[in-house]
């Protein structure tokens, strides 16, 4: 039931403050993540992890790319991420002590499931699935699982599944990080507990994002930029836009601009820049000035700390200041809303975009 909402996608975007709390519910005790939430014998397995291989498709893959940044930074162990359709068909090398993680909303995606089955023929340490559907094939065939508890997602464009996967992946990161002497788990858990409120604040920006959407309706191409953990968020923002509005959207790590895509920039191609406060903000700001110097129109999502000169070539949506590690979760939300309103203005079938199925159970 869509209730008061015009589309399932909008309803699911608005469910995120609740969904984020659902992922945390029963998973934390005295400021620390409980290990048994992953399954029996989880601790023993986690003790032996020396490396992580993540495999997933689409939006779930994008969540995996965010997790790579977190795992390497906080847990200090190597992490590789690959789309399942590539992983399953190439000769891969399994290093001893590697934990194999699949991420999937449905738990029934054919490529992800086949990648898991392929990996089981190799010498992986163990198999963990991060999944939204209890009892799905992926969960049944994995040793450990962490459910995202986001509730049924009806809109083909994944929204709440993505943010709940990110929260679940941060819980996983913290479990690995404590084995590496990471001392800020309680602080990070406190940050996770603040997410739901921040999410509400971001949803309140809805009218401003809706007006921003008007600038995209008659465009054919867009560029999304981010750096660090926000690069995969930009990729996910671009995926949402192409999926439901059929506008061609490409995402680039902003540092790559000069290596090619800058040639595309003109006043007919909106550039969406996602710029939370982090160690790369200054570098990103320099990249944005390069875009402006070429007549590009910028649509910027940043917090009060960004130093940009507004002008009629730059529209700014200001998000609340937040802890760096939480930015990928929170900055995904305005990008979901942006795509949603562009699609509504274009009159496309938001919940059931052409040519796509919610669950890709065949190759
Ligand atoms: O159920 P899964 O998470 O395994 O699905 C993976 C992709 O098919 C899915 O995320 C797809 O990319 C979404 N429609 C994107 O919004």
TrEMBL record:
GO terms for cellular component: cytosol. Residues 42-182, 212-353 form the SIS domain. Its main location: cytoplasm. Homodimer. Its EC number is 2.6.1.16. It catalyses: D-fructose 6-phosphate + L-glutamine = D-glucosamine 6-phosphate + L-glutamate. It is found in: Cytoplasm. It comes from the Bacteria. GO terms for biological process: carbohydrate metabolic process; fructose 6-phosphate metabolic process; protein N-linked glycosylation; UDP-N-acetylglucosamine metabolic process. This is Glutamine--fructose-6-phosphate aminotransferase [isomerizing]. One of its GO terms (molecular function) is carbohydrate derivative binding. It is an enzyme of class 2 (transferase). The active site is at 358 (for fru-6p isomerization activity).
């Amino acid at each position: 039931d869509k209730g008061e909402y015009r589309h399932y996608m909008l309803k699911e975007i608005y469910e995120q403050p609740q969904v984020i709390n659902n992922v945390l519910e029963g998973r934390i005790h005295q400021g620390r993540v409980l290990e048994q939430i992953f399954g029996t014998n989880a601790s023993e397995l986690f003790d032996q992890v020396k490396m992580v291989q993540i495999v997933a498709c689409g939006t779930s893959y994008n969540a995996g790319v965010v997790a790579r940044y977190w795992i390497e930074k906080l847990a200090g162990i190597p992490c590789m991420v690959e789309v399942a359709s590539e992983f399953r068909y190439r000769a891969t090398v399994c290093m001893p002590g590697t934990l194999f993680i699949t991420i999937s909303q449905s738990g029934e995606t054919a490529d992800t499931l086949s990648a898991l089955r392929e990996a089981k023929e190799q010498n992986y340490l163990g198999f963990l699935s991060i999944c939204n559907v209890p009892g799905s094939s992926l969960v049944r065939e994995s040793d450990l699982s962490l459910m995202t508890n986001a509730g049924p997602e009806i809109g083909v464009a994944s929204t709440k599944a993505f943010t709940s996967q990110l929260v679940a992946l941060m819980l996983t990161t913290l479990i690995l990080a404590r084995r590496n002497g990471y001392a800020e788990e309680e602080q990070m858990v406190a940050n996770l507990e603040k997410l739901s409120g921040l999410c509400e604040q971001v949803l309140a920006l809805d009218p401003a994002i809706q007006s921003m959407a008007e600038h995209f309706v008659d465009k054919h191409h867009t560029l999304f930029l981010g750096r660090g953990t926000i690069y995969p968020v930009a990729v996910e923002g671009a995926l949402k836009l192409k999926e439901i509005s059929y506008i061609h959207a490409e995402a680039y790590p902003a540092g790559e601009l000069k290596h090619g895509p800058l040639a595309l920039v003109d006043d007919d191609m909106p550039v969406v820049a996602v710029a939370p406060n982090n160690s790369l903000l200054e570098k990103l700001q320099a990249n944005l000035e390069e875009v402006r110097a070429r007549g590009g129109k910028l649509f910027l999502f940043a917090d009060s700390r960004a130093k940009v000169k507004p002008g009629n070539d730059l529209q700014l949506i200001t998000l609340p200041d937040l802890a760096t590690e939480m930015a990928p979760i929170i900055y995904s939300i305005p990008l979901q809303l942006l795509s949603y309103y562009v699609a509504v203005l274009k009159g496309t079938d938001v919940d059931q975009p052409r040519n796509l199925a919610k669950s890709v159970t065949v190759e």
